Amino acid sequence: MRSKLTPKLVLAALVVAAVLPAYSQAVPAARQGGFPIVVGAAVSDYSIDWGPGQRMLGISAWADLLPNNLPGHLNGLGLEAVGHAIDFDVPSSVKKMRQDSAMGGPMYAFHPYHNLRPYIRYVFGIGSIDFPAPAGFPRYTHDTFLVTAPGGGAEYHLWQHVWVRADYEYQFWHQTFGPNDLTPTGFTIGASYDFRPPPGQ
Question: pTM for the complete prediction?
């Protein structure tokens, strides 16, 4: 199954990377101003933690606020808002499944080194899930939970304001269906548009 998912993930990432440079040409103010904002979109491949080996695909988007000129080691500290819609390629053994989340929290983006910018984050928010009805509860097929998620990755400077992002996230859906947490984990590959001046400018 993994051999089928990986080409889809790479193809979607290439499409996103191709579209964002065209979009960047429509916002000349970003080249002049340099707002401390990074936005992006991507495709995600998640282990849904619903039986062994079960994975799904989805789309993700994020917006980072990275204030300029913070003192010393605080430079790079910011906030990230991130959303995931893990809705596609539902496993045949699961009749119904959707895992969506909207989270935000602190992040730290390290200074770029050879066009590579690593980052870490810890976000929290709400998760919405559709699932097969358990025995004896035919109408119980949806719920929402508190979600927290450490994560991190790196962005590579591709062209002007465009960066390619590779990300890993470990989610905790707290006390789902009892005392235990649901723990989906996933990889995301996509592209970011950084409104700040490109490295070296």
Answer: 0.81
